[in-house]
Every structure is written in structure tokens, then in C-alpha cells.
Prior knowledge:
This protein is mostly beta strands. The chain has a domain at 30-203. The protein is 11% helix and 47% strand. It has helices at 2-27, 42-46, 177-181, 191-198, and strands spanning 29-41, 50-52, 60-66, 69-74, 78-83, 91-97, 104-107, 110-115, 118-123, 131-136, 152-153, 163-176, 204-205, 211-214, 217-221, 225-230, 238-239, 243-244, 249-255, 258-263, 266-271, 279-285, 293-295, 299-304, 315-321, 329-336, 342-345, 348-352, 358-362, 370-375, 380-385, 389-394, 397-403, 408-415. The chain has a six-stranded antiparallel beta sheet, with no helix packed on it. Strands 14, 15, 16, 17 and 18 form a five-stranded antiparallel beta sheet that branches. A four-stranded antiparallel beta sheet has the order 7-8-9-10, with no helix packed on it. Strand 21 and strand 22 (279-285) form a beta hairpin. The longest helix is centred in the first third of the chain and has 26 residues, at 2-27. The radius of gyration is 23 Å and the shape is globular. The termini are far apart. 39% of the residues are buried.
Amino acid sequence: MKRNAxxxxxxxxxxxxxxxxxxxxxxxxxxxxxxxxxxxxxxxFASSVDILPPxxxxxxxxxxxYGDYVFINDKSQGIHVIDNSNPEFPRKVSFIKIPxxxxxxxxxNFLYADSLMDLIVLDISDIDNIVQVNxxxxxxxxxxxxxxxxxxxxxxxxxxxxxxxxxxxxxxxRRLKSEVENRTDVIFDGFALAEATNDSGSGEGxxxxxxKIVGEFLYAVDSHHINVFDISDLENPKDLDDxxxxxxxxxxxNKGDHLFLGSMRGMYIYDISSxxxxxxxxxxxxxxxxxxxxxxxxYAYVTLRGGNWCGATESGLFIVDISNIENPELTISYPMDxxxxxxxxxxxxxxxxxxxxxxxxxKTDVQDLQALNHFKDIVTFDVIPLExxxxxxxxxVLYQYEYLDNNIKLISQIGLD
Length: 417
């Protein structure tokens, strides 16, 4: 009996010590978002656009709605095409392979997409027979954007003469904290990135869009410029003079004769009454943070996401009074957790608050937003409030919601993996 009791005590002690050691070891580790470059040969890149059967998504990006279809960007890899003629039962149609793709915009069945520094034009009038009709080379100033949401950026040497970086792949990995803190290559040195970037009816994009069609013009922003294209001949866009617009530009939104550019430093407003030559009107400055912007008649709604490479330590919603377009002023701000895209429809305000889910507010009184819904336990990225219903893309999932009087209700979701 004594021997058995001693053995039991020994086993209990060893188990306790083992658990403590595991706890201590676990405390030395943390989860980090790691980004690595996607590399391909320049020869392959030049002829890389292809139409494929539906495939699993790798990393969901921006969302775009046009007619009965939803297009979802697979970051740096291409576009997933969804038949949404019945929002309750969306159906995967195909995948448009476009290396280096981040943004799209559509007008009268012509789809415009970036492929690094090139502009791709596709005829989508027959969705089952999509055809590339044009490729304008080296018309976009910046092709690969730095992965600001990553905690760690890693890359390996490659042949700069024959290969090119077409984007980034990000994954969550558990790393030893001390090793990460002592790394010398956590911050990307920019050399490989610089090498890569040197060589009718319109649809609706989300607030994270960098492409925007207004009338017969396509505006595409990079970190410093508005790239302007005359698309009066839809098949053959004409590359016009770029407009230097500011620093760290991330998103573009149109309201009437004005473009609202969201940047890491603030919001820039440009007049496009002469559409070929946007002219600066004013700016609203805030602390450095990642931010998109949407606008109604009197206010601009700006979400600021802090942490990681974005600069700021806090996140929130900023509501800016633009009744005097030449002198925008902050009205009020609200704290958020990790906001990405946002949208407005009538008196409703929708905010994709990252892993904190989708938040819906009544914005009748901007000084006192009223919470209507909070869909938790989902990761949210970008949203498009259509006239008939709401479209949202999250963590490899397409969600759709029905508008109700004072609320919204989930009507469908489809996994993209």
C-alpha cells in the first residue's frame, strides 16, 4: 500500500512539474502573423491570366458586386466569381487567375483589374466565357503593397533578373518571443519590392477599394498618386497623366464631384468636376493608422486601425463634418477593436470590426450612435450595403444579410475554401 501510495505521489508530482514546465514554455511563445512573398518568373507573369474552375480561396480580400455576380479578390492571386442571382443560394462559378491582383472595377460588362503594374481588361458579358481583351503594361505606379497587417515579414533571395514578387502570403505561426524580439529582418528592407514594382452601369466596391469608376473615367490610387484612365472606349482604356495626391494612400471613395482618399495620415479630398485632372480641395489629418472612408451628405466616416505596421496604438471610428468641403472637422470619435471596411445605407452604418465581428448602428444622430446589431464570433473584412441586401466578406466566407426595419438578418453564407 505504501509503495502504491508513493508511486501515485511521484506520478502526481511529475505531472504537476510537467504542466508547470509546459505553462512556462507556453508563456515564452506567442502567435504572430507572418508574411512571405509570392514569387514567379517574369516570363510566366506576362501571360499568366487564366480562367479556371472554382478553387479554394487562400486569403480573402476585397469584394465587388455587379449585377447578379459577386467578385471576391484572393489576395495577390486573382478573383473568385460567385453567381448571386439568388442571394439565399450563392454559387461558385469560376476563378480568374491574375497574379498580383488586389482590386477590380466593372462597367458595362468590362472588368478592370490590376496585375502589379499592369491593367487587365476582361469582357465578362458571357460569364461562362470570360475573355481577356487588353493588357496595358506598366501603367500603374505601384504593384505590390507592403503587408502592413503582418507582425513579421520574411523573404528569401531570388533572381531579380528573371523573377518578380507578385504579392504576399500571410499565415499565423507560433514563435518564440525572444527570437522574434532579436530578429534583424523583421522589417522588410524594400529592395526586392522596389525591384518588382519598377520592371453604364458600374458595380459597387467596398470601402477598401483602390479602384473607382466615375462616369467615363477609372481612378486607381497607389500610395502617392491617383492613376487616371479614360475608359470612354471600354476595351481600350487611355492612360492619362497621374496626379500626385499625398502619402500612404490606401482607399478611394466617390461622392458627387469629389474623391475621398483614405491614407495612413488622414483623408484627402479631390475635386473631379474636370474628371481628367483631379484637383486638391482639402484634407483631414489624424494620427498614423490604416483607414478606409465612406461618405454621406454631411459626414465622412473613417475607421482607424492601430497596431502592427499601421502605426497607431488605438483603433476607432472618426466622424468628420464635411458640410464645408474646404474645411473638414472632426465631430466625434468612437472606440473600436480592429476595424477594417465599413459601409452606409440610409441611416444604417455597418462596421467590419475584424475578429470582433460585424457591428450595425443607427447613425441618425452621429453624436449618439445607437447599436442595432452585433454579429459576434465571425471575422469581418469588407462590406457592401446594396439596395436590396448587405454583402460582407469575412475570413474565407461570404455573408449576406437582409435589411429589416431596425435590424438585419443573416440570409446566407458560403465558405470559399
